[in-house]
């Protein structure tokens, strides 16, 4: 999937920033009012996307939570509708690595091949969206199964997720 850098339209939208416990947009308080969107099988047309985002905006939402890295068309349409994106960065290993015990053990070591691959995935997404004001947030740990957290240990999982957050903060400090 190719990526088009943000245009001047997105730059004028302005970045959502956290100030303590509050969010601000252009120095004004900003309240998140989001709806989830997708994922979809291939073939979701740009016309349908435009129709959906217009309806989302009409319904009063200001943000869209997506579970996959957005296509150029999705970014353009969000920008056109004045919607912010909350992007989940997928790394599928957290869904099934409990079944693969060697992966689970390797994830406890911060220099193992699976950890390096996951961190690289997070880093690449953070770099890709670092300067796009359409992006309100990047999410690094979506729906980690509770039994997995108990099995690996909540503190270890927390430290791992925090290491992913640190990568995003380093690569995309404004996001």
What would you note in describing this structure?
By secondary structure, the protein is of the alpha/beta class. It is 47% helix and 17% strand. The protein has a four-stranded parallel β-sheet with strand order 4-5-6-7, covered by helices on one side. Strands 1-2-3 form a three-stranded antiparallel β-sheet, with no helix packed on it. α2 runs parallel beside α3 and α6 (113-129) packs parallel to α8. It is globular and about 45 Å long.
Structural class: alpha/beta
Spatial sequence of strands, sheet with the most strands: 4-5-6-7
State mean pLDDT (0 to 100 scale).
Answer: 81
The helical percent reads 40-55%
Topology:
Elements lengths: L7 H6 L2 E4 L2 E4 L2 E3 L3 E4 L8 H13 L4 E4 L5 H10 L2 E5 L4 H4 L4 H7 L5 H17 L5 E5 L6 H7 L1 H18 L4
Parallel strand pairs: 4-5, 5-6, 6-7
Antiparallel strand pairs: 1-2, 2-3
């Amino acid at each position: 999937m190719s990526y088009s850098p943000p245009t001047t339209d997105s730059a004028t939208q302005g970045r959502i920033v956290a100030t303590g416990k509050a969010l601000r947009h252009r120095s004004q308080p900003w309240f998140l009012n989001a709806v989830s969107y997708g994922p979809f099988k291939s073939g979701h047309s740009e016309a349908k996307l435009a129709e959906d985002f217009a309806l989302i905006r009409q319904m009063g939402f200001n943000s869209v939570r997506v579970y996959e890295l957005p296509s150029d068309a999705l970014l353009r349409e969000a920008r056109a509708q004045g919607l912010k994106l909350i992007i989940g960065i997928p790394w599928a290993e957290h869904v099934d690595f409990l079944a693969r015990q060697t992966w689970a053990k390797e994830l406890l070591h911060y220099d193992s091949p699976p950890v390096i691959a996951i961190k690289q995935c997070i880093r690449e997404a953070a770099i890709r969206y670092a300067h796009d004001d359409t992006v309100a947030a990047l999410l690094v740990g979506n729906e980690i199964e509770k039994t997995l957290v108990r099995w690996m240990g909540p503190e270890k999982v927390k430290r791992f997720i925090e290491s992913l957050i640190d990568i995003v903060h380093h690569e995309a400090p404004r996001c």
